[in-house]
Amino acid sequence: MSKALVFAAYGGPETQELVERPAPAPGPGELAIEVKAAGVNPADWKIRAGQMGSHWSLPAPMGREASGAVTAVGAEVENFAVGDMVLGLAAKGQGTFAKHTVLDAAQTVQKPEELSFADAAALPVAGATAYDVTHQIELEPGQTMLILGAGGGVGLMAAQIGNVHKFTVIGVASAAKQELVESTGATFVASGEGAADRVRAIAPEGVDVLIDLVGGQALRDLAVVAKDPSVIISTADPTTVQQLGGVAVVRTREGLEKVTGVAQYGLVDPQVTDRYSLDRAAEAIAMVEAGHTAGKVIIEP
């Protein structure tokens, strides 16, 4: 038997429960793994709350990304074998807040020995997103990249990637995250009222790309600092960014492999700041849902 965190109905954290179940078997194009670490993302609680549609079969397993050891290989899967150490995204209908789960082989890569399981588990969602969003618009060294929501898992890795490429990176986040944002080499700007003016003081001619990880009014307030609306890219609010003249992030299959290589050589630190056991998974999700995390939260079964 195995354990997994599920939500039994759409709503608040009271719908979550840890259940016992048989370890799932992989189907075609899938890999079964023993989970060593799983990353927690805002999408996890948003799915549970029904903010991302209501098409999950209930009870629905929670968690989207994990690292672990391959225990079984499904049909039509090549380049993976039992015993391989991997990181990847959950297969359809599966969740990673579990002792055992099933990954989508097409969205899974080998884990480099240099990466810990915790760091590896932070890459399939946040890392790959950071890679894709920072490469969607070509910038030259010295050009300005503004990141709204720079203190979270995606933002911190995006800032580091920008620094690797020698972009001028400005990170907007809450005051409590100033030290963390500055540790990436970014210039910190406090979020909230007047943030656009504070950015203008640093980049009076505007920014060459605005990466939005927050959405809503915060995005609307900062959109004015973009040199052109078309250079605004959002991972959080496709409706608002399109209204403003920008675009949603385009996810690629190469993003995970690329960011894993970048992390392997120490150019990006996933900034894992908090670790919880599976029995305390609800606490990990609550921390992310409250928006008070500084860096990446990991569950280690």
From TrEMBL:
Highest taxon, organism lineage: Bacteria
InterPro entries in alphabetical order: ADH-like_N, ER, GroES-like_sf, NAD(P)-bd_dom_sf, Zinc-ADH_QOR/CCCR
Keyword presence, Iron-sulfur: no
Stored CDD domains: MDR_like_2
Domain Enoyl reductase (ER) residue range list: 11-299
Coiled-coil segments: none
A Pfam family that the UniProt record links to this protein: ADH_zinc_N_2
Record's keyword terms, sorted: NADP
Stated name of the protein: NADP-dependent oxidoreductase
Organism listed in the record: Leucobacter alluvii
